[in-house]
Amino acid sequence: MRAPLSDLPIVLEDAAVVVGQLTILNDVALTLAAGAPTVLVGPNGGGKTTLLRLAMGLLAPSHGRVTWGGRIDAASTRRAIVFQRPVMLRRSAEGNIRYALSAAGVARSERAARAAELLALVGLSELGERPARKLSGGEQQRLALARALAKEPQVLFLDEPTASLDPAASKAVEDVIRTVTARGIKVVMATHDLGSARRLAGGVVLLHRGRIVEAADAATFFANPATREARTFVAGELLI
Question: Which domains can be identified in the chain, with CATH numbers?
């Protein structure tokens, strides 16, 4: 039996995104391989969200190319993305997951059990019948993670998953990310939260003005940043 195709590694080769006269990303060279989370950091407007969309296959590069497991075809059912402000369907929390399972092609007879598993994974078992739009911000973010996991992705992209959340809600989301990583799913996450990056990252990529300024393993990046921009950013100073 032929092994299923892998989307990893995701390789960006001199990739650029240009909209009109505005260059959003330029000369990005990056390999996203299996393993611990890769965390994208940097000031707002640096290109983090655009890089996530490019690696997900939602955007085509203006120049350069992106490959997934050596293939140039962006279509895949093995990647999922959760945006910073996920939209909740006008259904219960469980109904949101059932909808995602249906879209992923899961048989109707299996959806109840799978929905229960996913609710438990993100710590929402007791809230399955609650309208999704009445959940707290942190609960909605965890529900969005459960919906993304319904398609059993190999790679999960997260855009500022703890933005605007209080410490308890942030910890709950980070716990889900750790669980997902332990299950072998590659997480690629954009965040402005250095604390979250320190706690979760295996590798760190610093983006500034649409370029990768520095890319290193997390321990090296935080203990001994190589560039002036990284030293400024790690020190908590404004990078402009």
Answer: 1-78+153-240 (3.40.50.300), 89-152 (no CATH)
